[in-house]
Specification:
With 159 residues, the chain is mostly helical. The chain has 3 helices and no strands. Helix 1 packs antiparallel against helix 2. The protein is elongated.
Length: 159
């Protein structure tokens, strides 16, 4: 994989980590009172239970929270996620540092671009000639095929 593709992949990784970090922080953030004058929200009604067994209808009992473990510890999660984000950013920096240095500045780059564009134009013209020759050959083959098919049909004896 070339360096540019690796950079693109690393940017996607950083974006995914950031997205997951923000989502996790938003999901796990404890409620905070905005103002002491702001009224308390009404308490949520109890969840309806299923007729059989008394289990909640929304399936909350299917995924009970386990006791606090290191992976479930809300205070450790931001540290782990930020460490992962910093690691990905350092990998990105290492990839940027591995990019080849451009010798000669902007003028040399523009000259190289012009050379490559001229080479690209020549190759494009050659490909166009080959395409036209292939189209001509295709038409000849189609004509010969049609002629052969007509000859075969004319040679058939009626039953």
């Amino acid at each position: 994989m070339d360096i540019i593709s690796q950079l693109q992949e690393q940017v996607n990784t950083i974006a995914a980590i950031a997205f997951n970090t923000f989502g996790t922080l938003q999901r796990d953030a404890p409620p905070v009172r905005l103002s002491p004058n702001y009224p308390e929200p009404p308490s949520a009604p109890a969840a309806p239970t299923a007729a059989a067994g008394g289990a909640p209808a929304n399936g909350a009992a299917a995924n009970p929270r386990t006791e606090e473990s290191p992976s479930n510890n809300i205070s450790e999660t931001p540290k782990l996620l930020s460490a992962e984000l910093v690691k990905a950013a350092k990998q990105f920096d290492a990839l940027v540092a591995a990019l080849p240095f451009s010798e000669g500045g902007e003028e040399a780059q523009l000259k190289k671009i012009e050379e490559l564009q001229a080479e690209n134009d020549l190759v494009g013209q050659e490909l166009q000639k080959q395409l036209e020759a292939a189209d001509k050959e295709l038409k000849q083959v189609q004509e010969l095929f049609n002629e052969a098919a007509d000859n075969c049909l004319n040679l058939k004896k009626p039953d």
